[in-house]
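Quick one - inputs below.
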Amino acid sequence: MKKLATSFLAAAAAVAITGAAQAADAKACFIYVGPIGDYGWSYQHHQGLLDVEAAFGDRVETAYLESVAEGADAERAIERFARSGCDIIFTTSFGYMDATNKVAAKFPDVKFEHATGYKRESDNVSTYNSKFYQGRYVQGQIAASVSETGVAGYIASFPIPEVVRGINAFILGAQSVNPDFSLKVVWVNTWFDPGKEADAAKALVDQGVDILTQHTDSTAPMQVAEERGIKAFGQASDMFAFGEQTQLTSIIDDWGPYYVERVQAVLDGTWESHDVWDGMAEGHVAMAPYWNMPYEVAATAQKTATAITVGVLEPFTGPIIKQDGTEWLADGETADIGALLGMNFYVQGVDDQLPE
Amino acid sequence: MSPDVIQAILLTVVTAATPLLIAAMGELVVERSGVLNLGVEGMMIIGAVTGFGAAQITGSPWAGVLAAIVCGALFSLPFAVLTLSLATNQVATGLSLTLLGLGVAGMIGEQFVGLPGVRLEAIAIPGLVDIPLIGRLLFGQDPIFYLSILLAVGVWWFIFRTRAGLTLRAVGDSHGSAHALGINVLRVRYLAVMFGGACAGLAGAHLSLVYIPQWVENMTAGRGWIALALVVFASWLPLRVVIGAYLFGAVTIAQFHAQAQGVAIPSQFLSALPYLATIVVLVLISSNRRMTMRNTPASLGKPFVPDR
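Output:
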C-alpha cells in the first residue's frame, strides 16, 4: 500500500514540477530517497540543488522527486526524468545503483550521477561519494571523552559498506581515547522512519548507553536523547535546533560545490564519467560547531579534524584487528580504497554481529 | 535487569502502542457500523500535522490535541459523503482518502518542517507515581495515554451496554433490517465515520506531540494500516484491540532490545517480526470460522441505498 501511495505521489509531483521554465540551457534533475524536510540526508542534497539554482539562475532548470522508494519505483522515476528532457540526473541513494545503470544504458545522451555507489556500467554514469567516515572518527573520539558509561549506541540503517565503514571509524576513534570503549549497534532497516528511530534510540538508552549516534536520516534520535538527558551526534545536517542541550556535533554533507561543478561541466560540454570520493580536505565533509562538551575535548576534536583535513591522519591506519581476531592492517599500514569501499566486517570493539 | 529498567522498557512499549490503540478503537466503531474506511493512515497524518501546527501557532499542546481531533473528524467527511450519500466503493474511496491525506498533510506541513515541536508533557499523579515497577507506567504518563484507556473502556461500554451501541451493531449487521425498524442508517454511519476520523486524528496528535514532537512527512509510516489490521486481529472486540495494540507495541520494542543485547538473530527478521505476528494471528483467527463470523459486522463494506 505504501509503495502504491509513494508512486502515486511521485507521479503527481513529477507533473507538478516539470511545468516550469522552458528556455534554460540545461536541466538538472535530482531524486531523493526521503522527504526534503527530513533535516538530514535528503535535506542536504536539496541544499545542493538550491546551490545549483543560485549559481546558474535561469540558465539551468531544476527538478526533483522526493521520497522515491529504492527499487522498482526508482527505475520508473529515473526513466521519467530521462524522458522529460533532463540533461543530468543525480540519484542520491545507494539503493538506486542498479536502477541508475539500467536507465543510463537506455539514454546515452543523458548524464547520470549516482551517489555512494560503485557501478559505472556505461560511460554516461559517474559515481560520487564523501568520506563521512572521517567525521565519524572525530565523533568516536568525542564520544569516548564525554561518555561516563563507556558505551555508545549506534542506530544503523542497512548493512552496506557505507554504514559499516562509519561504525568502524567511530569505534576506532573512540578506542584512540579509551581502548575499552564499546558500541551497541541497532539496525532499523530503514533510512527514514522517525517512530522506529525513536524506538531504537529509547531501547539503546534503556540498555545503558549515554551517547547516541545514528546513520538514519530523521531528527527523532536527537530528540529522544534530549528528552532522556544524554548526548548525541546529528546526522548529515546540523540538528542543533532539535537538541540544544544534546548535540555534540554533527557531520554536515556539503554537496553544493560538487553539484555546481558537474552542472557546469554539462554546460561546457566537458562532462566525463568519473568516480570521486572527497572528504574534509575538499570541504565536502564538515563538522558542525562543537557544543555541550568541555573545552579540551572540543579542542582535541578540532585538532583531529584538522589533521584529517591536511592528510596527516587517516582513520583506517593499522594496527587494526578485525572483530574475529584476525589482523586486517599491520602497524602503520593504511587501507586501500577498494577495501574501504567494500567493507563488510567489523573491527574489534563493536558489540554486535554484522547482519549478512 | 533492575525494576527501573523494566519499567522504562514497558513505558516505551506503552508509548508505541497508544497511537495504534486509539486509531484502531475508532476504526472498530466505524466497522461495527458496517463501513470499511481504509483511510485511517490519511486521517492520522492529518491529525499529526494539524496537531503539530496548532500547538506550534498557539504554543499550547492542548490546542494541538483539539485541532487534531476536529480536523481528523472533518477530514473523514469527504469519505462519508462519497461512500454513504453517493454509495461509492468503500475500498477505493478509503484508499484515495489515505493518498489525499498524505499529500495534503505534506502541503500543510511544509512550513512546519524543521521546527522543534511543543511536547505534551506527562501528568504524574502524586503519590501513586512512586509505586515501584508500575507507578510511572500507570500514573506518570502523557495525557493521551489516559485518554486512550478511557476511550477503550468507553467504546466497550457503548457497544455492549447502551441502546445506541445496539443500534450501531444492528446497522452494521443488517442495514436493511435496521432501516425497516426506522433507524436512520446513514445518520448512524456518518456519526461512526466521524468518530473514527476523530480517533485517527488523536492518534496522529500523539505521534507529533508525544512520540516524536516534530513534523516530518510520512511520519505515520504505515501505523494507520497496522491499526486497520488490529481491528481484524481483534475480531471487532474492543478488549482484544487493547491486547493486540500492546502486543504489537511489545514486539516492536523487543526487537531493538534484542539487538542491543546482542542476540544473534538477523535484524531483518526482527524488523519483520511485528508484521509476521499480525499475519500469524490473522491466520489463527480466520481458521476458526465460527468465531470470526460471530463478531464480523455482516454488512461490512456494503453500500446502503435507502428506497426512494
